[in-house]
Amino acid sequence: MSDMQPKPPRHRILSMTLLMLGALVFLFPFYYMVVGALQTKRDPSLSGAIPWPSNLTLNNFLDINGAINLGRSLLNSGIFTGAVVVFTIFFGVLAGYALATLHFRGRGLLFAVVLLLQAVPFQLLMVPLYVLLVRDFGLGDSYVGMILPFAINSVAVLIFRQFFLQVPQEMFDAARIDGAGEFRILWSIAVPLVRPAILTAALVTFIGPWNEFLWPFLITKKQGMQPLAVAVANFTQTGAGFHANPMGSILAGSTVLAVPAVVLFIVFQRHFAETHSSTGVKG
Amino acid sequence: MSAKTSQSRGPGPGRTAAATPAPGRRRRSRLEFALGRHPSGLLLAAPYALFVAAVFVYPIGLGVWMSFHDSFFTAPGVDVPQPFVGLENYATVLSNPAVRASFVHVAEFLVINVPLTLVFSLLLATALNSVIHWRGFMRVSYYVPYVTASVATITVWMFMFNSGGIVNQILGPLAPDPAWLINRFWAMPSIAFYVTWKQLGFFILLFLAALQNVPKELHEAAATDGASRWQAYKAVTLPAVRPATTLVVLLAIITGANLFTEPYLLTGGGGPNGASTTPVFLLYQQGIQQGKPAIASAIGVLLVIGVLIITYASRKLTERE
Question: Core-most of A106, B219, B295, B304, by most CB within 10 Å?
Fold first, then answer.
C-alpha cells in the first residue's frame, strides 16, 4: 500500500499467483458439489468438471427430496438452529449484563465458570448427556433433547459482557437513581445499545447448530426428527445404494445443506470478521 | 479460543471499590453483605447458572462417576445397583488394542495436520498481506469451507477421492491403489488433509491479523540496516506471529481429540479395517452402539487427561524461545 509503483514488483506477482491457486483449491470443491448435484449421469472424469448442458438435470434434488424429505429436514434444522440462537442470546445477554455491570455475591465464581466452560470438551459430556437425556428422561427424538446441550454458550456470554463493559456505567447508574429496576434498565437501555452485538452473536451462533452433526445424530433415530445434516449423512451411509445417480443425490443434499450458511456468511461477512478479532487471539 | 477475550477490565476486586454506596442505603448493609450490592444480578445470572449446572457440571460428574462403576443402560425409572469397580474400566480400556490404536491415529493426524496448517496458513497470509487487489474475494473464498457443514464438504471429498474420482484421474499412474479413503496407509492422512483444507481459512485470517499488527517501522528499520527480505521476515515477522502459532497447535490438538464426523463419514466408519478410528468414534461405538457407557466414560476421561497433558507440554514448548 505504501509503495504504489507503476509496475508491480516480482514478489507481488508471485503472491498473487499463489493466492489465486489457493482460492482455486478452496473453491473448486464447492463448484464441483454444485456441478455434481446437477449431473444426470455421474461423470468423474476431467471433462465431468464442466457442466455440459446435455448432462444437466434437477432430478437429483427431486430424488433426495423423495428419500429424506428435504422440507421436513430443513424445518428440523431450522427449529434446532433457531431455538439455539434464541436461547444463546437470551441467556448470553442476561448473564453478560449481570457480569459486566452488577455487583452480586458469586460474580467472581460465575465468571470463572464461564471461562472454564470453554475448556470442557464435548467428548467428556457426550455419553453422560446421552445417558441422562435419552435413557433417564426419554428425550430421544425430541427437539428439547436436541436443543438443551446447546442452549447456553459461553462465547456469547463473553461477547455480551465485553460489549456491556464498553458502555459508560454512568448511563446505568443514572437510570438506577431515577428509580428504574434492573430489568427495565436491561430492556430499555442495555439491549438497544448492544443491538449490533446481538446480530453478530446470532450469525456466529447460527453456524454451529446448522452444521452440527454428532449430537443430533446421536439422539434422533426417527427420520422425521433429523436435521438436514444428519439426514444427508444417513442417506450417504445407507440409503443411497438403490438410486439411479446416488452421488448426484448426495451432492444435491449437500448443496441444500451448504447454501444457507454460505449465503449468510457472504452477506454478513463483516460481522464474522468482527467476532474473529474480538474473540480471537489476544495475548 | 475466546478464553483470551480481553480480561483487563474484568470484574475483579479492583472494580468493586469504584462506587460508594449511597448514604440512605446503609440500613440494607446486612442484605448487601449476603447478596452483594445488586442482588438482582443473582436473578439475571440464575438461568445461565442453572443451565450450566444441569448440562455441564452434573453430566461431567456423572461421566467421571460412571467410569469408576459398573454402569449400563436401563429402562427409564428402573433402579439397578451399579457397584464400584475402581480402575477396572480403565484397565479394560487400556488393554484394548483398538483403543490404543485410536490414540495412535490422533497422533498421526497431528503430525500431518499441524505442519501443513502452519506452513500453508502462514504462506497464504503473508501473500494476502502483500497484495492490494482482490483481498476481499480471497478472504471470503478461504473462509467458506470453515463455515460450511462438515457433512456437506465431506461428501464432495468422497466424490473427488474415490477410486475413479477426479483426483486419481489427474494423478493417473501415481494414484494410490486402493484409493485414498479405503487405503490402510492413506486413510488417516486423507482425514488430516481434509481437516487442514476445512480449517485453513480460520488460521489464514488469524495470521493475517497478526501480520497486520507488525509495526511498519520494524520492516523499514530492517531494510535500512541492509537486511534481505528473507532476513527481515525471519527477524521481524516470525516472532510477531508466535502467539498465533501457539493457537494453531492448541486448536489442532482439540480438533484431533474431537474427530468423529470425518472417520464416520469420510472413511466409512473408521475404515478400512479400523485404520482410521478415533477415540470419539470408539466412544460412540462402545458407549452408545454397544451400550457400555462405563467403558466409554473411561475413554472420555483418558482422552481429556491426554489432551490436557499434550496441550500443557506444547504450550511449554512453543512459548519457550
Answer: B295
pLDDT of residue B302: 92
Express each pLDDT in B25-44 by its tens digit: 555 677 777 778 888 888 88
Residues A101-145: pLDDT tens digits? 888 888 999 999 888 887 777 777 889 999 999 988 889 999 999
Under the banding of pLDDT at 50, 70 and 90, the label for residue A278 is very low
CB contact (8 A) between residue B124 and residue A22: yes
> Is A1 inside a domain boundary?
no
pLDDT in tens, B252-287: 888 888 899 999 999 988 878 889 999 999 999 999
Q: Which residue has the cell 480480561?
A: B7
The answer to whether the beta carbons of residues B113 and B252 sit under 8 Å apart is yes
pLDDT recorded at residue A7: 59
pTM of the model: 0.87
Q: CA-CA distance, A12 to A197, in Å (whole number)?
A: 37
Are both A133 and A52 inside the same structural domain? no
Number of structural domains in chain A? 2
Q: Does B300 touch chain A (CB under 8 A)?
A: yes
One domain for residues A71 and A199: yes
**Does the CB of B127 have a partner CB in chain A at under 8 Å?**
yes
The answer to whether position A3 is within a domain reads no
Q: Give the DSSP per-residue string, B225-287.
A: TT--HHHHIIIIIHHHTHHHHHHHHHHHHHHHHH--HIIIIITTTT-STTTT--HHHHIIIII
Q: What percent of chain B has pLDDT over 70?
A: 88
Interface check for B283 against chain A (CB to CB < 8 A): the answer is: yes
Residue B77 belongs to some domain of the structure = no
For residue B219, pLDDT over 60 is answered with yes
Q: Residue A4 domain-assigned? A: no
Domain that residue A28 falls in:
10-57
CB A264 within 8 A of CB A236: no
Spatial CA neighbour of A130 closest among B92, B290, B43 = B290
B66 contacts on A by Cβ (under 8 Å): 127-128, 131
The one-letter amino acid at B271: G
Residues 6+ away with beta carbon under 8 Å from B49 = A95, A110, A113
Tell whether A24 and A142 lie within a shared domain. Answer: no
- Note which residues in 214-253 of chain B have CB less than 8 A from chain A: 216, 229, 243-244, 247
Contacting residues of A for B318, CB less than 8 Å apart: none
Domain that holds residue B292: 99-147+183-319
Neighbouring C-beta atoms of residue A99, cutoff 10 Å: 27
B164 interface with A at CB cutoff 8 Å: yes
A179 touches chain B (CB under 8 A): no
pLDDT of the residue at A282: 33
